[in-house]
Amino acid sequence: MALYQWMTCCRAIALSVLILGCSLLHVAVLAGAEEKPAFKLEASTYTFSPGPEFQFEFQSRLIQAVPGDVLILKAGRYDLHSGLNLVTDNVTIRGEGHEKTVLSFKHQTDGSFGLLASGDNLVLENFAVEDTSHNAIKVLGAENVTFRGVRTEWTGGPKTTNGAYGLYPVQCKNVLIENCVAIGAADAGIYVGQSTDVVVRNSRAEANVAGIEIENTVNADVYENVVTGNTGGLLVFDLPGLPQKNGRQVRLFRNRIFKNNLANFAPEGNMVASVPAGTGILVMATDEVEIFENTIRDNRSFNVSVVSFLIFGKKMKDPNYDPYPEGVSIHDNKIQGGGMDPDGELGLILKSLVGTPLPEIVYDGVIDSRKLVDGKIPAEKSLRISNNGDVRFLNIDFGNLTPVNIATGKYQPETDASSFTGALPALNPVVLQPHGKPEPTKNKALQIYYDAPPKLSELGLFQGNGATQEPVNDVIPYELLTTLFTDYTSKHRFVRLPAGEKIRFQESGVLEFPVGSMLVKTFSYLKDQRDPGAGERLLETRVEFLKESGWYGYSYIWNEEQTDAELSLGGGEIDVSWIHTDGQVRSTRHLVPNANQCISCHSQNEKYVPLGPVAANLNRKNHYADGEENQLAYLTRKGLLQGTPALKEITKLPEFSEPRSGTVDQRVRAYLAVNCAHCHSPGGNARTTGLDLRFSQEDPARWGVWKNPVAAGRGSGGRSYDIVPGAPEKSILMHRLQSSDLAARMPNIGNRVIHQEAVDLIGQWISEMPVERSGSETP
């Protein structure tokens, strides 16, 4: 789309947001009236139909949404090119049936997901999401979430290039998934991760790698589902290195789990890529699991298997992780058929040792020797089997399954189930709580958006029309030592403080700005990066305001004449070209994020925070009208920063592009901290991965060394660990920095051009890491 068309569309979106649709009742301000109508927060019902403007109209409404809103999607096919974002509580999105209302992302060009939501009391029902680049519907950190009658599907059949997860609530509480359908996911069709109090019922999972997966989750009921035609049917996993670990109290009952014999099509490196085709139920490293009253049949490898994490042969660098499944009860199931054609290395070994069909219940026999009492695992921590009919049992005794023991005849798998016969106390049912009532006063962002001036010039930040980016007297420029890479754009940064107010110094985190502060950043491209004097093209100016209720941010897009910029809460794209430092002409489409995308990157512990102005990254010189001076010293001397210690006592972040500023390790860690840690940190939106890239993180396992990927999908690039010391070519981190694939590239916003300088230095960093030599733990 040409820039003019984008600008026209963005102007329309901005105006519609300022009006706030039906919530404001009037459009007098746009019709020539002198005053805006009174601002109101009123929940309403909005109806949408397919059409060329749906993407922008619907995302605009998601930005405007107030608690209690109901968004109706009429029957039809909706073609979308970008992922949708929702952050408001108490919103319902409702279609007319998952076969009638279809959101198609087949031609997706931006964002790796279909819908990303984080609001509490969310209801999604009666529509389908098809062919997303990565995950179909992800709900992060929400309480009270309902998926009802939703279908997710990759319509081209099972392919490694399909997205990873269909329905994907993660770190959520009080989750209901019912009457849903999940088809074609290259990881899990229905995936519940790191959540608490979950019910999955009356749903169907078919042609996925994993049909239904419950991972690192506490208190889940999975019942009356149909799970067939997947690689693995129903998986209950617990993985190391995640914020919530040691899942437990999971009940699987009255499910039909049959003919899950699909060849594994997961991208290599992902945990589910190790799941043998023909797996019915697989419990791995999870405690207190009750499996009962299920019909399980004709799964060609293992109908029911209970194993430790150790059986997968993965490195484990998490001292707080328990890799052993304990307190697993299997009773009153109907299990038949299957085991005739076991898959995978283990399946072939067992076939050669015990023949086929393999027994209906298989246990790896790996136990935690530290918990033995009189040489035995206590009953409450053991595996217990009862009333499953005439089924056979196999204890693999995996700890003794070695080539030497096999060759010498010392390995003898156990087929006698008598020591495992018995019952454990029944687990308690999950009791879900009703959704909370709307609280309109919680959505303060709408008032801020409503008050935003339509034109950047109305903020009075620059001399003249702002084309030169020369600030007025009370607007102070600043620079950073290591900056966020955004496709080789140049950036002009400024801060404006309210009159008479001061910033308070903080050693860590963003400086403490006074209410009323404004942070400003303009993105531009130098026409010729070899010659800054040749001029630049201004693209957008992002403005962050600090109000009593917190920080808020939005963008203004510069017009082609470079005389002003207009508010664009709905975001946009701008075609740009420039002469690069190598003399070659380059081009891209610059993404202007919508207001909800801004929140996804700027969220820390569910609060909007600025990213750049931390003391360590500001601790550098800058040019001012009265000469060159350290920025922190300048602000302190001007009476604008208080509590500043001596400069020599303030940490200084290494400068990524300056070799003299630190070691390769320090410079790379600084780069990852600035470019990645806003999400990959304990309070960021990628916290569920367990990857912590803050500069202060000292544990290599936490910032990726020998760390298994989580929810990576094809973003793993066929690699098994985030960082493999000495082997950048085996490290997922390198793949994600170099990839142009929507489902793999990182960061996933503002990163359409590969940052080659970062790729080179980070590759050197990994290459120079000491290589571990620890027996079987080599890559």
From TrEMBL:
Origin: domain of life: Bacteria
One Pfam family of this chain: Beta_helix
Domain Right handed beta helix: 116-237
InterPro entries tied to this protein: Beta_helix, Multihaem_cyt_sf, PbH1, Pectin_lyas_fold, Pectin_lyase_fold/virulence, SO_2930-like_C, SO_2930-like_dom
Coiled-coil annotated spans: none
Gene3D superfamilies: Single-stranded right-handed beta-helix, Pectin lyase-like (2.160.20.10)
Name of the protein: Planctomycete cytochrome C
